[in-house]
Each structure stands twice: as structure tokens, then as C-alpha cells.
């Protein structure tokens, strides 16, 4: 194996009020980075605080999972937000999570878009620029998790930010290296063994086999680290995470947080 390191991240803290998500501790035990919902697609103040505390106690890095203002659609609907407004929406969400992270003895150490905003920014210049502008204004040292070669990836590089190549263990890919829509019958990869083997393959080769049976590059050759995502709402997410972590470690892969901004 090569000298790359891996962070295993998960979208987490996605309850809201009485619509909780149950005990997320078993999943948090398996990951090294937590993409915490910041209130726009999910995540109320109580959940933000408790999830930050859970991450901090385990040495798991905290990431701001920013989205459209879309609680009804769980952030999975495209919204044509003007770029200046989207910049402010993203700043607002990161700022809220920063407050709870600091109380928990840690810091926000990266940013990742959620759902429709993530997929849109892969192709949409205006919305990619909004994400990049917000991070640049707040803290240009914050990495942004995104897919390699996308509009967001290139926009972040052009602005001097640090994009981290993110791959998806539990999702299928199109022939152009993007995620298959959730409406596709083969959109999800839910078998823990199959998902774990994909993770090892993506680490070793930087590529994945698409639903069209094409080998697609998803990691740049010079990538020092890879961010591997598991969705907390995927059926069997804990089993997928546990099996993936185990197989990566068996293959000598170093698993690390994304940055380390904890404080005493």
C-alpha cells in the first residue's frame, strides 16, 4: 500500500426536535470525522451541541455539513439561491457549529456541502463559488470535502483552498465520476463486505467501477489523504463503517481525523 492516509467521515446529527435519529454513538465510534448538520436541512441546537460533544470525546474531527435552507426536503432539493445569499447562509451555518464545537473543546476543522447543494456545486459555477467564498472569508485554512475534478474542486484550487478528495463507500457512481441519483435502483451499496472492498480498491487505485462498468478516477494521483463517506441514514451504516474500518486497517491504511483543532 502507498503512504496515503484515510479519513472515514459520516453525515451525522441529522435529527430535528422530536424527530431524533436514535443512538449515533456506535457509528461515531467507527469514524474519524463527523459531518454535523448545521440546522438548515437538519440539526437543532440541542443536537448540534450533543453531537459535537460526542465527537470531541472520541477525538473525531468536526466538519460543518452545510446545505440549502430546506428542512422539509432534507436538503435534497435544488434551490436556486442567489450567490450572495448562499454565501451568507453558509457562513451562518458554519458559525453556529463553531460555537457548539468550541464549547465541546474542539473546533470546526473542515466544511462539506450536503445533499443537493453538494451535487449542484459539482457542476454549478455560481454555487461552487458561494461555498468557496464563504470558506475564504471565514477561514481559508479549512479544507473543503468534494469530489475530484468537479467544478467545486477546481474552484477551490483556483482560490487557494485545500480540497480533499471525497469518495463514497455506500453510493454508486456514474461514468463521469459523479454520484448516481438516489432514484436509480443501484444507487446504494449496502452490503458491508462489498462496500469495504470498494473502499480498499478506491484507496489503492484511486478509481471505482461505475454502474456503466467503466473504471473512473475519483482520487488524484498526488492526493495525500482520501475522505471516505458513509451516510448515517443508510441501512446498516454501522455495519458498513465497522467492516470498512477493519478491512482498511488490515491492509495497513492509516485512519486519521481531518485536521486536529481540539483544545483544552
From TrEMBL:
Signal peptide: none
GO biological process, alphabetically ordered: carbohydrate metabolic process
Residue runs in coiled coils: none
Gene3D superfamilies attached to this UniProt entry: Glycoside hydrolase/deacetylase
A Pfam cross-reference name: LamB_YcsF
Domain of life: Bacteria
InterPro entries xrefs: Glyco_hydro/deAcase_b/a-brl, LamB/YcsF/PxpA-like
Official protein name in the record: UPF0271 protein
Amino acid at each position: 500500500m502507498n503512504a496515503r492516509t484515510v479519513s472515514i467521515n459520516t453525515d451525522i446529527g441529522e435529527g430535528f426536535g422530536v424527530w431524533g435519529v436514535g443512538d449515533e454513538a456506535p457509528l461515531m465510534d467507527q469514524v474519524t470525522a463527523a459531518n454535523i448538520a448545521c440546522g438548515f436541512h437538519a440539526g437543532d441546537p440541542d443536537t448540534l451541541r450533543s453531537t459535537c460533544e460526542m465527537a470531541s470525546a472520541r477525538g473525531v474531527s468536526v466538519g460543518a455539513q452545510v446545505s440549502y435552507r430546506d428542512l422539509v426536503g432534507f436538503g435534497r432539493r435544488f434551490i436556486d439561491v442567489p450567490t450572495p445569499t448562499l454565501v451568507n447562509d453558509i457562513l451562518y451555518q458554519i458559525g453556529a457549529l463553531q460555537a457548539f464545537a468550541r464549547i465541546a473543546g474542539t473546533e470546526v476543522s473542515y466544511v462539506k456541502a450536503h445533499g443537493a447543494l453538494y451535487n449542484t456545486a459539482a457542476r454549478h459555477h455560481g454555487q461552487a463559488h458561494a461555498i468557496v467564498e464563504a470558506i475564504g472569508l471565514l477561514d481559508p485554512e479549512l479544507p473543503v470535502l468534494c469530489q475530484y475534478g468537479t467544478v467545486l474542486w477546481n474552484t477551490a484550487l483556483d482560490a487557494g483552498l485545500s480540497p480533499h478528495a471525497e469518495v463514497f463507500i455506500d453510493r454508486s457512481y456514474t461514468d463521469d465520476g459523479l454520484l448516481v441519483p438516489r432514484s436509480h435502483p443501484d444507487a446504494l451499496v449496502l452490503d458491508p463486505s462489498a462496500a469495504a472492498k470498494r473502499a480498499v480498491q478506491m484507496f489503492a487505485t484511486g478509481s471505482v467501477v461505475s454502474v456503466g462498468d467503466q473504471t473512473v478516477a475519483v482520487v488524484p494521483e498526488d492526493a495525500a489523504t482520501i475522505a471516505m463517506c458513509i451516510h448515517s441514514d443508510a441501512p446498516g451504516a454501522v455495519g458498513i463503517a465497522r467492516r470498512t474500518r477493519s478491512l482498511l486497517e488490515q491492509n495497513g491504511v492509516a485512519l486519521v481525523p481531518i485536521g486536529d483543532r481540539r483544545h483544552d
